[in-house]
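step=encode ok
step=design start
structure_in=
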């Protein structure tokens, strides 16, 4: 070892622990002075650089690109301090190897420099190997995705051909037995189309080629559409089905409506598939709002077979099903939840599962959506502009069972009125709304409830909704009076009947 001629080495001699550590460090350690003379080198440095002794050597011989001598002065061409940098170190035999190094100026003794460096040959080799493996894997994935996309695309054409022909034949066929067979063909084709679509989505998501298509849409109409899609199937199975949207969920949002529908369809189809007794519910809540972005939280809850703790994590991975017997019994590709997870993540959210075997499952996810710009109808602004935002509209005071909105949905149909009267103590009066936003939502609910009502009520309701949307207090009150009159007239009429 070189005998340090300066106080750095004296310091080390005073501190034998420190010296022991530096001598035996796994990286090479060099001390040199401001002229570049090496004062100290640990064993690792000597081994790596191929010197028996580095005494009288110069730092420019070891790192010629980073240290140079100009007019007898040492010129430093690398960073000093905590920065880790890649440098080439030269051995005694003039071969070189890459190192990752830090160079410090001694704080107490600025004329002394310390160099600590690690042999990076192995690391660089591994990085190169890794990069190569990554590139090869990426190319293989790309080929696989393209292949899958091509095959599924090719499959689509014949499946749709069969589907179209089966539908046409079913229309012409009068024999019930044959019609039943044709409807089975139709169903098979639809199932096949669903699988093809899942595989296409999955391969696009995996290849990072999937893009969302955000558009402004009416959130409640979207949920209504999902509800209609599943309602019959679920209730025919003898299950209850509840859909709740909390009032603070905005009427309009900007997002990829189709993909949100896809996620909900998948979760509700699973809930239906794995539940034979009890109920299924879908709830939507607004959980946060930051500027013009809103976070919506969705819960799909069932009282079905549930999922064991140890199986829960793997479900969101592709092609995962709880067990082979599950897939035999219930079918499916095991792609649905993985696609849901990836879609939810594309919408800046996450999905989770809480479940207990035999009790049921709760899939919940949150996503971020944008709110439309003010000119697109920012109702909140209307609220602040109009201090008279206390609005009286139509009240639906419920008696026992009034919460069963479904029963009221067909309000106005003769066959339905009797049932409504039995369940509701009072059907139409007035309700106090805190602001225009709530008023608009309430109007939308009433509009939906009165969809099957006589035309006079429907048009009165539409006028009321338009007036509320405009935030026009006078017109709203007038439309409200007109609607109330129509409702009263109808109630009198029914009572007479
Ligand atoms: P699949 O097309 O097979 O239904 P998914 O990814 O949608 O694919 O679901 C994967 C598996 O997760 C299902 O096969 C089932 O084992 C389990 N699973 C999903 N949802 C439920 C649920 N609501 N109740 C019980 N098990 C479920």
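sequence_out=
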């Amino acid at each position: 070892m070189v005998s340090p001629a300066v106080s750095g080495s004296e310091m080390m001699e005073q501190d034998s622990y420190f010296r022991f550590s530096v001598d035996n460090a796994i990286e090479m350690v060099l001390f040199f002075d401001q002229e570049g003379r090496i004062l100290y080198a640990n064993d690792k440095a000597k081994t790596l650089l191929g010197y028996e002794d580095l005494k009288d050597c110069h730092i420019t011989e070891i790192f010629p690109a980073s240290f140079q001598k100009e007019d007898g002065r040492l010129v430093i061409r690398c960073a000093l301090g905590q920065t880790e940098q890649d440098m080439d170190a030269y051995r005694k035999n003039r071969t070189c190897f890459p190192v990752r190094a830090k160079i410090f100026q001694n704080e107490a003794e600025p004329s002394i420099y310390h160099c600590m460096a690690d042999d990076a040959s192995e690391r660089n080799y591994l990085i190169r190997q890794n990069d190569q493996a990554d590139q090869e894997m990426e190319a293989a994935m790309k080929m696989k995705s393209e292949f899958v996309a091509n095959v599924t695309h090719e499959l689509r054409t014949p499946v749709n051909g069969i589907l179209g022909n089966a539908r046409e034949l079913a229309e012409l066929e009068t024999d019930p037995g044959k019609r039943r067979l044709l409807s089975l063909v139709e169903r098979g084709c639809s199932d096949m189309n669903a699988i093809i679509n899942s595989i296409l989505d999955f391969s696009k998501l995996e290849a990072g080629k999937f893009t969302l298509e955000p558009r402004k849409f009416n959130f409640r109409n979207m949920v209504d559409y999902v509800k209609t899609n599943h309602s019959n199937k679920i209730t025919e199975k003898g299950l209850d089905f509840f859909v709740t949207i909390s009032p603070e969920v905005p009427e309009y949002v900007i997002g990829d409506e189709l993909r949100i529908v896809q996620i909900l369809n998948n979760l509700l189809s699973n809930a239906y598939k794995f539940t034979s007794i009890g109920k299924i519910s879908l709830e939507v809540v607004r959980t946060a709002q930051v500027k013009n972005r809103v976070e919506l939280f969705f819960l799909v809850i069932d009282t079905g077979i549930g999922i064991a703790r140890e199986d829960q994590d793997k479900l969101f991975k592709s092609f995962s099903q709880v067990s082979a017997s599950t897939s035999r019994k219930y079918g499916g590709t095991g792609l649905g939840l993985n696609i849901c997870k990836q879609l939810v993540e594309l919408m800046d959210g996450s999905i989770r599962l809480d479940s207990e075997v035999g009790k049921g499952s709760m899939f919940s996810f949150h996503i971020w959506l944008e709110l439309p710009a003010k000119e697109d109808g920012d109702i909140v602004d209307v609220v602040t502009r109009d201090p008279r935002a206390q609005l009286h509209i139509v009240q639906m005071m419920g008696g026992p069972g009034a919460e069963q909105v479904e029963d009221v949905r067909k309000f106005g149909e003769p066959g339905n009125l009797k049932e409504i009267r039995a369940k509701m103590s009072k059907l139409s009066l007035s309700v106090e709304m805190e602001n225009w936003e709530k008023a608009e939502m309430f109007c939308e609910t009433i509009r939906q409830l009165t969809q099957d009502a006589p035309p006079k009520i429907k048009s009165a309701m539409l006028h009321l909704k338009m007036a509320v949307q405009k935030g026009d207090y006078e017109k709203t009150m007038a439309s409200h009076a007109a609607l109330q009159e129509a409702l009263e007239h109808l109630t009198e009429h029914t009572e007479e009947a």
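step=design ok
step=annotate ok -> The two ends are 113 Å apart (CA to CA).
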